[in-house]
Write a structure and sequence with these properties.
Layout lengths: L1 E5 L4 H12 L3 E9 L13 H11 L3 E5 L5 H16 L3 E3 L6 H13 L3 E3 L7 H11 L2 E7 L14 H9 L11 E7 L9 E9 L2 E8 L2
């Protein structure tokens, strides 16, 4: 199947993509939703430069969708339609695990673009999935998180030791409920590791972020 991927830049979309490619699908393009100025990605706070570096490591183009929260769905569907036309796509990969409302929305917007929503992680055991991600070779760091985790968790690599620390804080280790978001700097699909420099830590609204820029 010719596929695109709703690419957050984080571990879940990466692992979902790995599973579909392992099953024989052909990746043609990534899609990421940015703010209206194309400066930072929604939720994760990644720059276009970092996302572009990931797409180059994957060897496929990335489509950056500029949107506000109020125009999110409309612009998402518009970009899906354009991607289907440009790359002859049949399906789009999503990294969601078990939140039914997310799955329903993804199926709706995909159907609006005449695409099949592909959720290879669906109904997986949350901790086991993260352990499988680590074992598979995904290297990712936390780039945003809830205040309950705070600045101490920002920039940390997701490994077995960190999973225990997350559980000790009473936080879902997968971050499926938005407790944290991650940035993949290496995985078996990349032809090279993404080198990033960690910068300022800040609190924006109800979320903590760390700046990540490409290493020069």
């Amino acid at each position: 199947m010719n596929i695109g991927c709703s690419w957050s830049g984080g571990k879940d979309s990466c692992f979902a993509l790995m599973k579909r490619i392992a099953g024989g699908d052909k990746l043609h393009v990534l899609l990421n939703v940015m703010d209206e100025n194309l400066e930072y990605s929604k939720s994760h706070g990644l720059t276009s430069e970092v996302l572009d570096a990931q797409s180059k490591a994957l060897g496929v183009p990335i489509q950056l969708a500029s949107t506000t929260w109020s125009t999110y769905e409309k612009n998402f569907i518009s970009n899906l339609k354009q991607m289907k036309e440009d790359y002859d796509l049949e399906g789009i990969v999503y990294g969601d695990i078990d939140i039914e409302a997310h799955k329903t929305w993804e199926e709706k917007v995909s159907a609006a673009a005449d695409l099949k929503a592909l959720l290879p992680l669906w109904q997986g055991h949350r901790r086991r999935l993260v352990e499988d991600m680590i074992q598979s070779g995904i290297k990712a760091i936390i780039v945003s998180c809830i205040p309950d985790l705070g600045f101490d968790f920002l920039g940390k690599e997701i490994n077995y030791e960190l999973l225990d620390k997350l559980e000790a804080k009473g936080v879902d280790v997968c971050g499926e409920n938005g407790e944290y978001h991650s940035l993949v700097v290496n995985c078996p699909l990349f032809d090279h590791e993404i080198k990033v420099v960690q910068g300022e830590k800040m609190k924006v609204g109800n979320y903590c972020f760390i700046e990540t820029n490409l290493s020069t």
